[in-house]
Design brief:
CATH topology of the largest domain: Rossmann fold
Structural class: alpha/beta
Radius of gyration: 17 Å
Helix content: 40-55%
Strand order of the largest sheet: 2-1-3-4-5
Largest sheet: 5 strands, parallel
CATH architecture of the largest domain: 3-Layer(aba) Sandwich
Shape: globular
CATH class of the largest domain: Alpha Beta
Strand content: 5-15%
CATH superfamily of the largest domain: Response regulator
Low-confidence stretches: none
Order of helices and strands: EHEHEHEHEHHHHHHH
Number of domains: 2
Mean pLDDT: 87
Length: 217
């Protein structure tokens, strides 16, 4: 991005909000546009400040982070969302990813890793490796019919689009996919646009989750 990445910090703990603001405001082209204490306030803050990325605590009173993430990601021009969590084994993490979060960060993640994650999701990337995605999903009991629904959704794709889905699920970047499938990066992006529309997803992480649900990875 040619301008600073604007972020919204959402956490019900004022100390966490203050620490993240002090840590991130002005760091490597990042500007803290606003803070919010719960999911309802987060939605209002997005309307008022138009952040590029939201750091979203998951467990909050009132409107929780998962609900807020789903509402924000359902918009026509949504901000990217990174889930903040204390435990990476929490099933709330997978629910947040299904709701549209691009990835998650533990609250004790080193500052340079948080900055890197913000810049990556602002550029449209996911911040989860396939191994982490698989480990998270293995810890959560699958919902009834999840695999069947995922296979049915992927069956609507062309052969080439399914190849792109598999490449995304294995963690390849657009440039890697272009080299692997012998196409231009622009063509990869065009396929991804069609895949998002056909599958009704909003980011690469949700594509990877569908591929895992369907047993492709």
């Amino acid at each position: 991005m040619t301008r600073p990445v604007r972020i919204l910090i959402v956490d019900d703990d004022p100390l966490v909000r203050a620490a993240l603001t002090m840590m991130l405001d002005g760091a490597d082209g990042i500007v803290v546009a606003a803070v919010a204490a719960d999911g309802g306030a987060a939605i209002t803050a997005v309307d008022a400040h138009a952040p590029d990325v939201v750091l979203m605590d998951l467990r909050m009173p009132g409107v929780d982070g998962i609900t807020a993430t789903a509402r924000l990601r359902a918009r026509s021009h949504p901000p990217a969302v990174i889930a903040l969590t204390t435990f990476d084994t929490d099933d709330h993490v997978v629910r947040a990813l299904r709701a549209g979060a691009s990835g998650f960060l533990l609250k004790d993640t080193p500052p340079d890793r948080i900055v890197e994650a913000i810049l990556r999701v602002a550029a449209g990337d996911a911040i989860l490796s396939p191994a982490i995605t698989r480990r998270l999903m293995d810890r959560v009991v699958a919902e009834s019919g999840t695999a069947d629904r995922a296979r049915a959704a992927l069956a609507e794709l062309s052969t080439r689009e399914r190849e792109v889905v598999l490449a995304v699920a294995t963690g390849l970047t657009n440039a890697d996919i272009a080299a692997e499938l012998t196409m231009s990066v622009a063509t990869v992006k065009a396929h991804l646009t069609h895949i998002f529309l056909k599958l009704g997803v909003t980011n690469r992480t949700q594509i990877a989750l569908l591929a895992h649900d369907a047993g492709l990875v």
